[in-house]
From TrEMBL:
Residue intervals of the Acyl-CoA thioesterase-like C-terminal domain: 175-276
Domain Acyl-CoA thioesterase-like N-terminal HotDog residues, every copy: 41-113
Listed SUPFAM superfamilies: Thioesterase/thiol ester dehydrase-isomerase (SSF54637)
Biased composition (Polar residues): 120-129
Region Disordered: start-end pairs: 117-137
This protein's name: Acyl-CoA thioesterase
Gene3D superfamilies attached to this UniProt entry: Acyl-CoA thioesterase, double hotdog domain (2.40.160.210)
Amino acid sequence: MSENENQSPETISNAYFIQQGDLFVPTKRSLGYWLDNTLTGPAVASLLACCLEREFGGADYIVTRYCVDLLGMIPADPFSVETRMLRSGKRLQLAEASISVGGQLLARASAQFIRRTENPDNPTWQTPDWPSPSPDELAPGKGYGLAAVKPVAPEYARMVREAPDATDSGRGNAPVLGPMAPVACRQAWFRPERLAIDGVPLTPFMRAAMMGDMTSPMTHSSEFGIDFINTDFTLYLHREPVGEWIGLELVSHNARDGVGIGGCWMHDVEGVLGTVNLSAIAQVRRKNAA
């Protein structure tokens, strides 16, 4: 029996899960926003990323697509993760990880691994780098538990974002992004500060995967709260992140008939990393006044 098996989950302060054999035991850090005693999206996303990378990753491959389907609320009770290789080729591999509870599939992630080679000699246009200052040049902002934050001023936004007028029903809800709630402020550097599994260091890919779910409040919240719950997200990367800081820049949100889509660019200190896109369902959550 490992040392961690003698500890209560509440004694682990910096990890979403403790692994005990084939089971993952949620800690209080894994609890979500929408429903008591259920798991938060970043916890699920980072755990499935860790399981896929540990079992199928390798130095010759990069995860170029990571897609997470969040199909239902996962109870904060011990559970196992099933993994399988869907296709194993010389240049491309596709693997899947899933969480089921009581015979019901509640979360699934797939990772597409592409073998590293060399770019063609014929150059192709590439997306310009983010004009944001580096994290070292910015003051820290209010953290969000899972990550340290350094907000980027609206003057560095690459598009004009204007919020619609708020309705009376929206006022009074806590803004989930705090000082970043105004849409003009929806760009920042994030440094993940949680571990997916106790004792397992974060890898560059796991950092990106953990921040992938952060695009939900970045894209789908108003200045007065969040009334959409994301059902998935897809992260595209053309290389692994460099350094501890991940930049997210809001680029899109559209919704009609209770169906929303949104997207962010993802950056690191060396430039553009990729994109995160996600869909969402309208879901209103109201907390009783204190």
